[in-house]
Every structure is written in structure tokens, then in C-alpha cells.
Design goal:
This protein is mainly α and 240 residues long. It is built from eleven helices and two strands, in the order H-H-H-H-E-E-H-H-H-H-H-H-H. The protein has a two-stranded antiparallel sheet. Helix 2 packs across helix 4 and helix 3 packs across helix 4.
Length: 240
């Protein structure tokens, strides 16, 4: 996990034109912008985080945007659109010119440099952040399963010389809307073909080498009796 912290500059903290919670949201945005320079978390994520409605989150974002603290753009990825939120330069520019009149300490050049940098790198990011979660969802969409055609199945089985009936395989899964016997959606039909091939080999082997039938109790007793008689007969001959 990578640990960072959020930054809320004085220009944002003391801006009376934006709601107080919008300032907290701004700090959250600076943290989530760490990884790629922008945040793509959804209103739903922020609504759960702050225990409010998505409409309220949108109002906070609009307030920050109108004040010039953030910019918002919509990016198209495959079949969906992703919102990118960027932190504007205006807060750190105003801060570097002398700071806010309400701040009478910690206003040295070094602190100003830290504030300028932390606007971009402050925050907390990890594999569980909404940014990363949405990235995984986007990748999942790109790998969406597309059912094969019968011709594709036939060609693949013929190329690999698998012992699988392509039409039987295709009909089996096509009629089940490409769900397997466990109720799971098929993700890789070629892997299913391999499984069918392996199972058919095991079935053929069992036919070629059928298991030895078990003997009944009566058969075992009769066999034991014959052995006893043979032993006794051998002993009698030896005595004679």
C-alpha cells in the first residue's frame, strides 16, 4: 500500500463561496489524483464515503469547479465514458504569492513549496482505491466473453486434434446460454474444449481397462474350501 496525505490549501479552506464539505471533498480529490494526476472516482463512491446523496456530491463538485479549483472532463473508453477530475493550479498560485491573511504561521518558502507539491502528490492510494477498482472494471469490460460460432469450434478442435464432438460441444453450451454445469458463465470456451478432451480420454481408458469385478462372499468361501482340500490332499499323498 502507498501512503500519502490530502492537502487543502488556505485559499480553499477560507473560501466562503463553497460549502464546508466541498472543501473536504477537495482534499479527497488531491489524494486520489496522486497516481495519474487525475481522479476518476464516481459520485457513488463519494456518496458512500461521506454518507450523503450523489446529487449532493455533484453540487459540491460543481461548486469547486465554478470556483476554479478543479476541472472535469469526460473520457471515452471502449463502450463507456469515464470522468476525469483534475486539480487546478490556481490554489497553489495564490498561496505562493503570500498566503491567506487568516494564516499567520507556517508560511515560509519551504512550506509554500511543500503545499505546491502536495496538491499533486498528497493523498492515500492503494489497490483498493476507487480509481484502481474502476480500472479493473474497465479491463474486465475489454475481456468480455463472446460466444464462438460452430465453425470456430470445429476449426479449433480439428487444429488441435482433440477427441471432442464439436457439434455436441457447441449445442451443449449454446442451449445453456454459455453457462457450465456449475452455473458459472463460460469465460474461455477453448479451455472447456480441453477439459472435454481430457475427460473423453479418461472415459476411453476406463472402457479399455474395465475394473475387475468383486467376488461375492460365497465365491470367496468356495475358493478357500478348494485351497483347503488341495492342502489336505497334498498332505495325504506325502504321508503315503
Amino acid at each position: 500500500m502507498k501512503n500519502y496525505y490530502a492537502i487543502i490549501p488556505a485559499t480553499v479552506r477560507y473560501d466562503k463561496k463553497i460549502p464546508a464539505n466541498a472543501k473536504l471533498l477537495y482534499g479527497e480529490l488531491t489524494a486520489l489524483c496522486n497516481e495519474k494526476g487525475f481522479c476518476w472516482a464516481t459520485n457513488s463512491y463519494f456518496a458512500k464515503l461521506y454518507e450523503t446523496s450523489e446529487r449532493t456530491i455533484q453540487r459540491w463538485l460543481n461548486a469547486l469547479k465554478e470556483a476554479g479549483y478543479i476541472t472535469i472532463s469526460i473520457q471515452s473508453e471502449d463502450e463507456s465514458s469515464v470522468r476525469h477530475i483534475y486539480i487546478c493550479d490556481s490554489p497553489r498560485t495564490k498561496m505562493s504569492r503570500g498566503g491567506d491573511k487568516n494564516v499567520t504561521h507556517n508560511n515560509t518558502d519551504n512550506n509554500t513549496d511543500n503545499i505546491t507539491e502536495n496538491i499533486y502528490i498528497g493523498g492515500v492510494t492503494s489497490d483498493d482505491t476507487p480509481n484502481n477498482k474502476q480500472t479493473k472494471k474497465s479491463k474486465a469490460k475489454r475481456k468480455r466473453f463472446t460466444p464462438p460460432k460452430l465453425e470456430e469450434v470445429e476449426e479449433y478442435i480439428a487444429t488441435k486434434s482433440y477427441n471432442v464432438d464439436p457439434e455436441r460441444f457447441f449445442v451443449f453450451y449454446d442451449e445453456a446460454d454459455w453457462y457450465d454445469t456449475k452455473g458459472n458463465k463460460v469465460r474461455n470456451w477453448k479451455q472447456k474444449v480441453i477439459t472435454w478432451h481430457n475427460n473423453s480420454g479418461a472415459t476411453a481408458k476406463s472402457r479399455d481397462n474395465p475394473p475387475t469385478p468383486k467376488k461375492s462372499i460365497q465365491e470367496k468361501l468356495a475358493e478357500n474350501q478348494r485351497l483347503i482340500q488341495q492342502i489336505q490332499g497334498g498332505g495325504t499323498n506325502a504321508t503315503q
